[in-house]
């Protein structure tokens, strides 16, 4: 009994941190409609900054408390700067670009932390005066956690008072339901947005700084916390500060007891299972309100330059000829690079079908790529199938998972669709990551090599080229078919489409399945080229990578995905050669792309091409 | 006071307004009539800056405010009451008024929640109720009161009688005449000719995004041919 109570208290203390971070994220989303991936980065930055300030400030024991106050302020200032310089430019852009821009910030801050503080884990100093433990029912409970438990409700009350008792808070709540009307009533939204962003960032920073003495500071704490925060916010209802409190308490307590009672395989997955359950029953979260969907034409991704790229036949013939004739002349390393590009091209092109053609913003596409890879590895290792059979069947594993997850996802749209796809991807990731007996856990599965007859680089490349050609050709056919047109129609005007009798969900689900199938094929190619599979293949950064490839190529051009995959991989190789901070460079490139070329490279060329042709008559 | 010339506006790719010209003098109530989809709402939104005008000029008290951001237009003294009222559902009546409150505008005519409650006594008892618990008529009153809190000299009312019970429509007409007496210039869009006749001095008829008729309300009522052609009444 005493153990249970202490466990409950621990869960509640954790919930307080989640609440601080999540309420910030929720406020920012409510007012600006931006899902801020960088929110976890501000949390991490504040924790590191506070740990440095504690030793740097000449205040003796009280420097700890000064650091806890100063670090969040510094981070909030940085947040304000980022809002003014970057986010302000894209408030009217489709959700995809907003998400990618905040992800660019994640990459840059992540590398900045590595640069300034190194990659080794750090432990924060213990809080002077609160460092011991107090006995509760015979169990020891950390004094600091007790203090947090008392502070938490105080913060919640202050936040409530701010939102309900000050003019600024009333404006925030008004803007959360109708920001255009708030503008028409004479409120300058620009400063309201900046103010809310600074406040939200400060809350994240405060949580990070307060967390500093409790946990080890690591360079991955940004992604850990942001994923949990998404779960909390989505469960509670995006934009609702009290939803954030409810969600945080639910998750905190669930995690505390999950550790006691559930088998280890489910520890990571449990919160996502709760999130998926809530989204299925109440798509807008427990306290969120159904949003009058006001997506711009083109849905969450916007309308592109339009039309398909009609490159002259000789361009395609040339590319094909090079793809067949060149590899035998190349060193083995570059052949493997080409194989990887083929795998990534399939991965990106299948996502392009969802995002570009279907307007479905998936943030968990890596799940299907990864399940294709794991499908191949498991079929070969556990089911003892010959390699060619495992290779051929692996995409079906991914497609089956896509149909299963997709059935729930296609009930939602916009940001909520993105969040649910992310949730399912995280469930898959968590299970693969922790089911040591079956998937090998984070050790992955090794020795996944092609059979002897395919084992030379050029032979395996030939197989990959054939498979990729089949997959990409299939996607090309699907995009150009009446089914593809229906998907585009559903993307641009879902209501009109339903009014003429199109079953939206069925079409979207089928597209989800096709995309899963092709991503899985990409995963299978990838698995045998690397000789091993790891849970990373299903991770959130991998999903974002695929979006980046699609974005580089241009979301409305199928050919763009392949170009994007090639450019991405080559950039990776070149930049990694010169600097260890590939992520920061990628983030910078991504931010420029989003702000300067919202239609991607191929979209840009396409627009130029069309203009040139029209001007020539 | 308001002078709109040659206004063109688009919604995405569809061209809605074609060279709309209209004016409203101080203290006037001007009605913008026309069928559904004629461009009445778009005209008001273009004046307010909610739909950026593609061409043309909006001059308010001698100042060019074409395409300025809505909050700037609002602060110049133009208040907008949207067709669907757009009450903030999570906020109480009092909080809805607070969002509209502005410190600008001259002192003696400044609107406060108390003054708004004097004008719409029904709202006073509802001050602590949430916006989404109000009836249509109450919402319309709140929407007007909320806009008045910004101390406008010109009020743009988008279909103030829409969706209201006949008895409430009559009360609304009285309120509008009361605002006129208080010295506020009003430009309203309307489909209810009877209502418009009751409150307005002059009228414009819009059809397919073009002004087709302009004249005094009394002349319009007398001209059965025009009424039949453009308003089908």
Sum this structure up briefly.
The complex is a heterodimer of chains A (617) and B (233). With 617 residues, chain A is mainly α.
Folded structure, characterized:
The complex is a heterodimer of chains A (617) and B (233). Chain A is an all-alpha fold. Chain A folds into 2 domains: 2-256, ABC transporter involved in vitamin B12 uptake, BtuC; 333-616, ABC transporter involved in vitamin B12 uptake, BtuC. Helix content of chain A is 72%, strand content 3%. Chain A has a two-stranded antiparallel sheet. In chain A, strands 2-3 form a two-stranded antiparallel sheet. In chain A, strands 5-6 form a two-stranded antiparallel ribbon. In chain A, helix 11 (269-281) runs antiparallel to helix 16 (414-434), helix 15 runs antiparallel to helix 21 (504-530) and helix 18 (457-480) runs antiparallel to helix 21 (504-530). The mean pLDDT of chain A is 88. Chain B has a single domain (2-231), classed as P-loop containing nucleotide triphosphate hydrolases (Rossmann fold, 3-Layer(aba) Sandwich). Chain B is built from 10 helices and 10 strands. Chain B has helices at residues 40-48, 70-76, 93-100, 113-119, 121-124, 136-148, 166-181, 193-199, 217-222, 224-231, and strands spanning 2-11, 14-24, 29-33, 53-60, 63-64, 78-81, 154-158, 185-190, 202-207, 210-216. The longest helix of chain B has 16 residues, at 166-181. In chain B, 45% of the residues are buried. Chain A binds chain B through residues 167, 170-171, 173-174, 176-178, 180-189, 289, 297, and chain B through 12, 48, 50, 69-71, 74-75, 80, 82, 86, 88-91, 95-96, 98-102, 146-147, 149-150.
Topology (SSEs and partners):
The complex is a heterodimer of chains A (617) and B (233).
Chain A: H1 2-32, H2 39-56, H3 63-85, H4 95-117, E1 122-123, E2 133-136, E3 139-142, H5 143-165, H6 167-177, H7 179-184, H8 189-211, E4 216-217, H9 221-236, H10 241-261, H11 269-281, H12 313-325, H13 332-357, H14 366-381, H15 387-409, H16 414-434, H17 436-439, E5 445-446, H18 457-480, H19 482-492, H20 494-499, H21 504-530, E6 532-533, H22 540-553, H23 558-578, H24 582-596, H25 600-616
Antiparallel strand pairs in A: 1-4, 2-3, 5-6
Chain B: E1 2-11, E2 14-24, E3 29-33, H1 40-48, E4 53-60, E5 63-64, H2 70-76, E6 78-81, H3 93-100, H4 113-119, H5 121-124, H6 136-148, E7 154-158, H7 166-181, E8 185-190, H8 193-199, E9 202-207, E10 210-216, H9 217-222, H10 224-231
Parallel strand pairs in B: 3-8, 3-9, 6-7, 7-8
Antiparallel strand pairs in B: 1-2, 1-4, 4-5, 9-10
Helix pairs in contact in B: 3-6
